[in-house]
Amino acid sequence: EHFRAVYEHAYPADELMPLTCRGRVRGQEPSRALTQWVVLNKTKEFEDAVRKVLRDVNLDNDVVVSVFETNIRVLGGLLGGHSLAIMLKEKGEYMQWYNDELLQMAKQLGYKLLPAFNTTSGLPYPRINLKFGIRKPEARTGTETDTCTACAGTLILEFAALSRFTGATIFEEYARKALDFLWEKRQRSSNLVGVTINIHTGDWVRKDSGVGAGIDSYYEYLLKAYVLLGDDSFLERFNTHYDAIMRYISQPPLLLDVHIHKPMLNARTWMDALLAFFPGLQVLKGDIRPAIETHEMLYQVIKKHNFLPEAFTTDFRVHWAQHPLRPEFAESTYFLYKATGDPYYLEVGKTLIENLNKYARVPCGFAAMKDVRTGSHEDRMDSFFLAEMFKYLYLLFADKEDIIFDIEDYIFTTEAHLLPLWLSTTNQSISKKNTTSEYTELDDSNFDWTCPNTQILFPNDPLYAQSIREPLKNVVDKSCPRGIIRVEESFRSGAKPPLRARDFMATNPEHLEILKKMGVSLIHLKDGRVQLVQHAIQAASSIDAEDGLRFMQEMIELSSQQQKEQQLPPRAVQIVSHPFFGRVVLTAGPAQFGLDLSKHKETRGFVASSKPYNGCSELTNPEAVMGKIALIQRGQCMFAEKARNIQNAGAIGGIVIDDNEGSSSDTAPLFQMAGDGKDTDDIKIPMLFLFSKEGSIILDAIREYEEVEVLLSDKAKDRGKGKKNPFNLNIHTCSPFSSADTRSYISFIRNKKRLYRVVLYTVY
Ligand code: DMJ
């Protein structure tokens, strides 16, 4: 149904904008959702989709694209489409007319990407112009110096497949060269790689290292390159990195970023949503226990916030509130189900589907969550939602006979396109001979479990996975990490540290001396923040170590207080009339005056534009806004003045819409509408602010449906089923301590500029 919606409302644009039911155009690239039709057993639809792509797609557009995204989404989509097209053709019923046209298109695209590799390192430039290539004036790209590790290290599957399908070896050679370079540049003592690297010098630009954003699929492609191409050197590299990941980054059930040079040092106190793919990769590696643990932790975060927030803290609070419908968790759920056969993972999948239907479904598709706390939406549905999320969820519940081919004969690319495993024996002219292995013998001690089989892994123990999950049952909601208990105990004495957190100055040498004595080290982060890490064993004495713990605890409290002060509570405008029925939720900014929606019941009403539209003088259409929620344009007078004018005209609420065309809460920070410096107690109605992009969704709705009813609230309410509001925001009281006994850390904001910027946003 939703693939059809894409074709109906968006085609030939790349993606559907699900709130406005329009196509999102970024250049006429091929449809990125080809392979799904075959997996869903919609062979006829696949055939039609291929014809459409061949008829409508033009790769010669003057558009600057990401080499990484174009590779995984477009090239991978074409190659996956080709793989399934030839499989169907061979079966003799469908695609009989097919003559490698998708492959020819893939080859054309492959050649268009090659100029990006024109660097001394062999690492590709991050962006390329599909028509003009790179570094020419009209290309508008080619001056970049850095790229991310995943950007340079996620090419080998598609590029090798292209080489092996066509016999043109250059693609595989280039992808191998980039991988060889990254391998050479790994930090030799930790065997970890950083997040970004200079493509000319090979220096690490960001020296933090995790398994999420910026690195994720580099690791995935090393292991999958081994599976697809059968080349041991990829497995050796993967295993070396994997050991390092398990030693430093994996702190079960958490996966925490560290510094490549000092891998015992955590680089952050939060995790990003992209790392949710990692349990799936661990299944492929055969390391099931930590996969079950991390997956369970992630599932509890999802149960708490309905979706995996883009980033969440070590005590499972929201760090970045958006959720662009990422598929990684569904992917890991699918692989864990395949590995364990435990029906628990079907229940997990069911919850994912229920939450998608309940919170993300909108009239034209599924909308990304702008803020999981308020339930507000963004007008986007990324192609990975169709290519990956739908596919993994479908496959999770599919029986073998539901799929018309044997999926075990294929490998999933990072975008879940399918490449056939028989490629390993085809056109292998550039495989092993170009790679030099540092190993004489392959360390495969942990590799006997490849393609996990429940019989081998946990014979006669159907409760194996459950027994690993059980101790983690309350990890998110009820239990605090162990470290905090020690601190609380030490606090019972009431003693105070020799240096109080609130007095601490990072530039005061005496303070630094005290810190050192307490075993606390201080790191200045590039973004202006300061990170404190305590190693109790580095303290001068056990008493100093205890003082250090007290100091850290104070600092944590101070930091979370500061964060709370800076946080802008977003509000929600929900369109509740036909055909939206509460399914479209827009992120809104609050006002420092008028009815506080976090304390009062929501306000519901039909909307009406005020006249004058800026609301800066007495309204000339009071009869139109009476008893309604007035729409007013930003500008020309104070927000409070607008509020008074619409209130006097009898409005029950107001929505101020930004006058800066194109502004959006996707790109601009939300702010609170300030009063006018005088007493604003006379303003009794609720006032919310929408950026222009969100505002135009309401204005468009009025144009189309005339009568538009909205709900102003602090978070989206249940969609008319009379149930309690499903968007619970649980405030967790644990502090972000590491569970390691001797280590605690905190990263806090002491950058006055940032504070000042936030203050600035709150004034009119
Ligand atoms: C996908 O495009 C790919 O899986 C990529 O490797 C990282 N994640 C996105 C979707 O979240």
Automatic annotation (TrEMBL):
The keyword Acyltransferase is assigned to this record: no
Residue ranges annotated for the PA domain, each copy included: 610-696
GO biological process: carbohydrate metabolic process; endoplasmic reticulum mannose trimming; ERAD pathway; response to unfolded protein
SUPFAM superfamilies the UniProt entry points to: PA domain, Seven-hairpin glycosidases
Obligatory cofactor(s): Ca(2+)
Record's catalysed reaction(s): N(4)-(alpha-D-Man-(1->2)-alpha-D-Man-(1->2)-alpha-D-Man-(1->3)-[alpha-D-Man-(1->2)-alpha-D-Man-(1->3)-[alpha-D-Man-(1->2)-alpha-D-Man-(1->6)]-alpha-D-Man-(1->6)]-beta-D-Man-(1->4)-beta-D-GlcNAc-(1->4)-beta-D-GlcNAc)-L-asparaginyl-[protein] (N-glucan mannose isomer 9A1,2,3B1,2,3) + 4 H2O = N(4)-(alpha-D-Man-(1->3)-[alpha-D-Man-(1->3)-[alpha-D-Man-(1->6)]-alpha-D-Man-(1->6)]-beta-D-Man-(1->4)-beta-D-GlcNAc-(1->4)-beta-D-GlcNAc)-L-asparaginyl-[protein] (N-glucan mannose isomer 5A1,2) + 4 beta-D-mannose; N(4)-(alpha-D-Man-(1->2)-alpha-D-Man-(1->2)-alpha-D-Man-(1->3)-[alpha-D-Man-(1->3)-[alpha-D-Man-(1->2)-alpha-D-Man-(1->6)]-alpha-D-Man-(1->6)]-beta-D-Man-(1->4)-beta-D-GlcNAc-(1->4)-beta-D-GlcNAc)-L-asparaginyl-[protein] (N-glucan mannose isomer 8A1,2,3B1,3) + 3 H2O = N(4)-(alpha-D-Man-(1->3)-[alpha-D-Man-(1->3)-[alpha-D-Man-(1->6)]-alpha-D-Man-(1->6)]-beta-D-Man-(1->4)-beta-D-GlcNAc-(1->4)-beta-D-GlcNAc)-L-asparaginyl-[protein] (N-glucan mannose isomer 5A1,2) + 3 beta-D-mannose
Active site: E69, D216, E310, E328
This protein's record includes keyword Transport: no
Keywords: Calcium, Endoplasmic reticulum, Glycoprotein, Glycosidase, Hydrolase, Metal-binding, Signal, Unfolded protein response
Residue positions binding Ca(2+): T414
GO cellular component: endoplasmic reticulum quality control compartment; membrane
Location in the cell: Endoplasmic reticulum
Broad class of the protein's primary localization: endoplasmic reticulum
Domain of life: Eukaryota
Family the entry assigns: Belongs to the glycosyl hydrolase 47 family.
Job description of the protein: Involved in endoplasmic reticulum-associated degradation (ERAD). Accelerates the glycoprotein ERAD by proteasomes, by catalyzing mannose trimming from Man8GlcNAc2 to Man7GlcNAc2 in the N-glycans. May also participate in mannose trimming from all glycoproteins and not just misfolded ones targeted to ERAD. May have alpha 1,2-mannosidase activity.
Protein name: alpha-1,2-Mannosidase
Species this protein is from: Panthera leo (Lion)
Lineage: Eukaryota, Metazoa, Chordata, Craniata, Vertebrata
